[in-house]
Amino acid sequence: MIQEPQSPVRAGLEPTLLIFPATHPDGLQFIEALRDRGENFVAATSEWSAQTAREVDELIVLPYVHEPTFQARFLSLLEQRNITRIYAPVAAVHSWLSHFIEKNRVPVRLIGLSPIQREQSRFQKLKAKVAGYRGFIDDCAGGASDLSDLEIAAVLRLASTIYGESNEEKIAAMMAIFSSAPKGDVIEIGTLVGKSVAVLLWLARRYQVGNVLSIDPWRTDAATQHDSPETVRVHMISEWDFGLVPEIFITNLLQLGGGCFNYLQQESEQGFQTFQRDRAIESQAFGRIGYQGRISVIHIDGNHDYDKVKLDCDLWLPLMAEDGWLILDDYQWIHGDGPRRVGDALLVEYANNIERSFTCGKALFVKFHP
After folding, report:
1. pTM for the whole structure
2. Cα distances (angstroms) measured from residue 199 to each of 124, 171, 253, 287
3. Nearest Cα to 42, choosing from 62, 66, 63?
4. CB–CB of 314/342 below 8 Å?
5. Is 172 helix (H, G, I), strand (E, B) or coil?
6. Is 69 exposed, middle or buried (0-12, 13-18, 19+ CB in 10 A)?
7. More confident: 240 or 292
């Protein structure tokens, strides 16, 4: 007969959470979150990992759940460490524990859905999100967008895997505008680790618009925004290791960029001169990519100081296709008014050449016409 572990009151110990198996990537991520919250936990596994053992204070080895010795070792561990909750990131383990705990009335609780149920639930939430954006994307497209719901889901999921500040409303609008983007180059000024340019690249390939180019110097001095508060101007910038950022960027884009993408590790002005002179960009990561010199879509998201934003627009907008799209990031921005001042002036200067414009996700979207 299975013996239940002592109650937390009799054990006299602080309630503890067990992560099993802790060697699973989701288990390691969960441990990181627990540490951030200062929660007490025990890490266990059935497959020893020296690396995981180095990352946790203690790594306990349990038999596999189907082995005869597992039940006794498991119940003993619950009692010894006063374990009241379990996070099981592996489907087979979660399923076995769920049935065992229920059948034997073990006083411990599994946290959350099973990994299988969690994945299905995650996708159902994504589908609901797509349904919420469907009409919005169609409106921004000026009519029904030809992107399927699953394509929209794919772009949203892609964007969610890369760090960046482009929100989902802005990404939805980016999806919409490509249905009316002419043939030409797709340019991004200021790319950081590649969230928004990954979306642009996916869309450029989907609509066969043209090749994509990212331009970013990845330097502290170039990223420092002098018109912004100290938090943005100094503190946030100082957190970035700009020697590491290009490697993160390349890693994020390698799976997408083969044959139609490249980058320049230069400031906007120098990148413009290179682009004008060469019309073909070469890098070790992405090879040699040619460009037309006629811009279909440009996303200006570099330094937000007024002089820098104005320079970006003065340099690059003359290369726009007559019916191209401008995305001016952070037109609505609480940390400075550089993009808004430049954007407002552009709306006046190009008034006779603008088919339509709208703001979305803090960005200004402008569609030009001949």
Report:
1. 0.89
2. 22, 7, 10, 20
3. 62
4. no
5. helix
6. exposed
7. 292
Q: What is the DSSP letter of 321?
A: E
In angstroms, rounded to a whole number, what is the distance separating the alpha carbons of residues 356 and 283? 37
Query: Are 63 and 46 in contact, with CB atoms under 8 Å apart?
Result: yes
| Domains in the chain with CATH codes | 8-112 (3.40.50.20), 119-368 (3.40.50.150)
The CA-to-CA distance between both ends of the chain, in Å, stands at: 83
Longest dimension (CA), the chain: 85
Can you tell me the distance from the alpha carbon of 272 to that of 295, in angstroms, rounded to the nearest whole number?
12
Q: Which two tokens stand for residue 327?
A: 């995305």
Instruction: Name residues whose C-beta falls within 8 Å of residue 280's C-beta, 6 or more positions apart in sequence.
Output: 288, 289, 290, 291
| Region for 190 from its dihedrals, namely left if φ exceeds 0, alpha if ψ lies in -120 to 50, beta otherwise | left
Alpha-carbon Rg for the chain, nearest whole angstrom, is 26
What pLDDT is attached to residue 240? 85
Tens digit of each residue's pLDDT (9 = 90 or more) over 62-89: 999 999 999 999 999 999 999 999 999 9
How far apart (Å, rounded) are the C-alpha atoms in residues 214 and 355?
26
For β-strands 287-290 and 280-283, DSSP reports them as antiparallel
Neighbour count for residue 156 (Cβ, 10 Å)? 18
Instruction: Indicate the range of 75-79, 140-144, 148-152, 226-230 predicted with least confidence.
Output: 226-230
CB atoms within 10 A of CB 282: 11
- For the chain, list the strands marked E by DSSP: 16-19, 41-45, 59-61, 83-87, 109-110, 185-189, 212-215, 261-264, 280-283, 287-290, 295-300, 320-328, 354-360, 363-368
pLDDT > 50? residue 7? no
Nearest to 250 by CA among 279, 275, 287: 287
The residues facing 300 across adjacent strands are: 189, 328
Contact 331, 369 (CB under 8 A): no
Written as six digits, the tokens of 163 are: 């760090």
- Per the listing, tokens 């497959």 go with 47
Cis peptide, bond prior to residue 370, ω within 30 of zero: no
- Dihedral Cα 330, 333, 336, 337, nearest 10 deg: 70
